[in-house]
Design goal:
By secondary structure, the chain is mostly helical. The chain has helices at 17-45, 51-61, 63-68, 73-84, 90-95. The protein is 67% helix and 0% strand. The radius of gyration is 19 Å and the shape is elongated.
Length: 96
């Protein structure tokens, strides 16, 4: 339903669809990064992997894509803060 621009009837109405999308993107970025880094840390920390093997493992985990997906994080966080605290977005303040 969210992809159709509306919420389920039982969903909380605190946030509108754009805010929920920003929250979801922010959480997805954080989850992907945490899983990949923690997994890499555990495997590398166990020892027994050479530097080339660690680099290959990073590639297999998709670290370049995960890091690239972090783009837009700060603007999403600003947008989420605007929604949380009922702040006027910066663009609207500049126009006023």
């Amino acid at each position: 339903m969210l992809s159709q621009g509306r919420l389920h009837e039982k969903a909380s109405q605190r946030f509108d669809v754009p805010a929920l999308k920003a929250i979801a993107r922010s959480f997805a970025r954080e989850a992907a990064l945490k899983v990949a880094v923690d997994g890499l840390r555990g495997i590398a920390g166990a020892g027994g992997m050479s530097e080339p093997e660690v680099a290959a493992f990073e590639g297999a985990l998709g670290m370049p894509a995960i890091l690239a997906a972090q783009a837009g994080l700060l603007s999403d966080m600003d947008f989420i803060a605007d929604a949380l605290y009922d702040r006027v977005p910066k663009a609207a303040r500049a126009a006023a």
